[in-house]
Amino acid sequence: MKSRSVMYRLLLGSTALAAAFVAPAVFAQDAAPAAQNTPADDTAKPADEEPVIIVTGIRNSLQTAATLKRKANTFVDSITASDVASLPDLSVAEALARVPGVTVTRFTLGGSPDFPSPEGRGNLIRGLGFVRSEFNGRDAFTANGGRSLDWSSIPPQLVGAVDVYKNSSADLVQGGIGGTINLRTLEPFDRKGYFAAVSMDVNYGDLAKKFSPSYNAIIGNRWQTSIGEIGLMGAVSTSNLKSAYNGWQQPAPIPRGPNTGNPTDAANEPSSVTEIVPGKTVGAIEGFQMRTSDIDRDRASAYLAAQWKNDTMKLTGKYIRVINKTVSVEHTLESFPDGGNNQRYQITDATFDNSTTPLNRCNVPAVSTSPVRPVDYCETQFPVDGGYMTSGTITNNFDSWTGAYGLGAQVLGIGKKETTITDDLSLNFKWRPTERLYVELDAQKTTASAKSNETWGGSQTYAIAHVVEGLDHPELTLTTDPRTQIHPDIVAGHVQTGVDGNGNATYAYTPGVQTSTADPDAAFWLYAGDGHHNGTGELTGYKADVQYDFAGESWFKSVKFGARYTDRSQTDANAGVNWSGVAPAWAGSGLGLFGSEKTPAYEEVDFADFYRGGVLQGSNTKVLAIKSDLLLDPVAMQNYIKNEPTFTNADGTSKIPYVAQLNADGTPKYDPANISDVREKTTDAYLMLNFGKEFNNGMSLDGNFGVRYTTTTLDSHGFMAYRAFGIDQQTPVVNSDGKTVRTADAESHDAEQDFLPETTVWLCPTVATAALTAADTTAGYTDATKINRACPRDANIGKSEAQTVSQKDTHWLPSFNLKWNLNSEMLIRFGASQNLSRPNISDLRAGQTTSAITTRTSYPTIQPCVPVAPATTCVEDPLFGIDRGVQNISLDQIRVTGGNPNLKPTTANSYDLSWEWYFKGGMVSTGIFQKDLKNIIQGGDQTLGSMTLDGKTVNVVYGGQVNQDTASIKGVELAYQQFYDFLPGAFSHLGLQANFTYIDASATPPPAYIDADGNGVPDDFGTIYRFGVKNLLGQSKYIYNIVGIYQDSKWEGRIAYNWRSENLLTYRDYITGDPVFNSDNGQVDASIKYNVNRNLQIALNASNLTDTKNKATAQINADGTRVDRFSFLNDRRFVLDIRYQY
């Protein structure tokens, strides 16, 4: 049997080199999962006693992972390179989703869930996101403002093995409350002698419908010399991935009926109610959204490693460089009612289901603003007796004054470029001066940068929409209204050439009747915007570890102690997308009709293949979008808008208010409040005692206990920027047509400056001189005393003050781990520890913005006169339609937003207990766990104090990330893996890997709103958190994986199913304001490999074979009722891989 086993392993060896960089796994998979937990024992062995590393396939990979789990001194799960490369997991994050209790994140948790990633970006461990990432046991991060490495930027070909720590010991670096993920790479001494390999694969995504290649190469050798043994290796990898996703979104139902009252619009003015079904109250679903995104990712990496050793010492140096570049273009076709404008939508031919759940009015979408002010804070529920709408024809004649009929269907284009670069240089020295003493010294230098820019361009056309709702098989049919013909006198750049025979004006350009949704005579520029980010980070770290083994047979086996120092700095500059109208009809600069442009800036986008076809039906499948080359170049976008003849005045100046966030040289421009410089210095020390005892009955105990001391000093530099009030435009009493439009005294009481002079000066203290400039006159000023020249008018920026915040925190973190070996196969393991996770670097920034929150009280609306019978006429109020200014503007609050450098670390107590059985060919384990967390960081408000301005004392409130929550997590993990060698024939090559995790978690929900003055009214309606949701972000209650395996001497196959139950994506969706939940989701992946000979291997991998859609629902009331929100469909990916090693 022994000779058969050895031969079997040798035959399987040819499957090991999964890709050029995959060698780390197969060469290093016998290494311990954490270098911190083992002495430098390899320096104690002569070269001729080196263990033989046998290259094997998935069978040995799983056995190695089980061995690592069994021997570890705390709770560890591992995957090795064969695991990473055996499935088409294009990032480490996706591969880790097969570890018990680990899930992959594809959405930005807590923020907008509208922009998923086709590749997994990060991981949660047991539902927690406080995960520390390490590269070869050292700090690793991406300069995006967080603390973790973006695993999507790391090629799996670079991976030797990945260890997932779910509890802690004193010698593990703090920072991973959820757990620690350590990625280990290849070292030259992991294989004897010369080795080299090359590989190539081709990836195809069936939504992108494009092929993309990857190339990998590795070479290494080791030599005996007079000064010891030397090893060198180098590896390079390039990878291109072209992927795509499609997304369907729909709004929550809105009550429409005879008793739903008068909802308010975005200006808090009543809107009329239009019944859909006479006498019935129904849930109307008023709108749709279709989104396509094409993503082109290029990734290049280089890896160099050198080693030297003799009998007592070993020196290892490594250098890793990874460059990740992503270019994406997204197009969205949508029509949503904005604010209260939903009441202007007409719905006919509607069908309804049998739903009777009452509805509130808080779910009116707000596309361009924060959700509208809910008059009753979502408390008033309207009974539904007509069901929720499932299909219907939607139209809207709101824009008929422009000559347009139908819904305003918007087409949003977003172009985005992202580049991340990570360089990591490390040096490690191991020394065994005596038989019992081990010393390890380590140093690293890591630099990282992350840059991105995105440009938005929006256009609009008109259509009548017939919508069939649903997340699986929605349908949309667009038709045009034959009455739609844009009036020529509202078109930007229109020139009147004379009059016709009927006395009507004629123009140089007259739009024709709309013929389709892609007709340039019925589509126009609507808005544009750009956003930028530039982050750079640097970390220098040193550590020393010493272990001394005790002699004799006492309980105490060894003592380990050490110290660590890191100095990390990061600079971040952010400029959020600055939405700005370009040429909508209401802007006054003329409608930017595509058909009238001298230089066309549009391109056709066809949605016919959305969801692989069948959703957008009929002949109108194309729309006009802003050109992609403008979306991918903010400078070109700005220059086009500035120079397009139809957008310029006679003197050549631009009519359009759009100003990109760019300096004169085209580089991004950042407000002072959005630039931060954070520096952290951390000093750690630990002491850990290892113990163990063998008993005569075959049982034994071993474990460790210790304490870790950590202290961190933070210095955060930034600016406090004060947001000045907007321009007090000097509007004349009589307009250019000679019509009186406002009262003579309206100008004296129509803006914040008129009512709050002290607050005005406090926000921007420099008072203007008496003289008016030409720019002042153009801006509409007639009174120079109302101008603060220190405040740039384009951004309402007031004064800026540099500020530095320093803080220091110290923690003692005890830990205890015990392993009770019941016999040679079974053990019971227990672990208890304290740990902490520090806030994200971006959350600690000192850059902040202060603004004044005010309430405007308008004069009562004067209604048009209505004749009283029998009279047929009446006298109109002389003030009807006249602007009278405002009654009052009062100061409610001083609000501070931005970073919070006073945040404290989140801390946790963790407990684990497991039973594990390791038998020939497999293992079974079951465990229970619990974590109690304090000071969880979430979005919220915090009262900082108060101040008096303009005779009123108001609260100063910070809104942003605050320490406010606690959480408790407990659960169960089950794991099983086995190869069925005892079965006859081909069945003996079968294996199964399965795991299941149950998580029960509860957390303190974010406060519904802040009411600092106690008047019962929320201080900020833009950040209301509804319904008291207690879920943790991203936490699924159930997670399981099932992997079927086949492996013989020539073939290796695997089919895997990964499933997780629903999880919370955000407490507050930007569009609806509702909590949004990702629905249950499962995906099937598969791979098959053929070993042509011991050197050549061919593999075919496939992912998302089930073509699974990622669906989400929104909660619409306190009872937990959910309605459909969105559904995203990713590529089915297929990878053909050819590998050769020698």
From TrEMBL:
GO cellular component: cell outer membrane
Region described as Disordered: spans on this chain: 248-272
Occurrences of domain TonB-dependent receptor-like beta-barrel (ranges): 500-1105
Annotated localization: Cell outer membrane
Signal peptide range: 1-28
Classification via Pfam families: Plug, TonB_dep_Rec_b-barrel
Record domain TonB-dependent receptor plug: where: 70-180
SUPFAM superfamilies: Porins
Listed Polar residues bias regions: 259-272
Matching NCBIfam families: TonB-Xanth-Caul
Family from the record: Belongs to the TonB-dependent receptor family.
The name this protein goes by in its record: TonB-dependent receptor
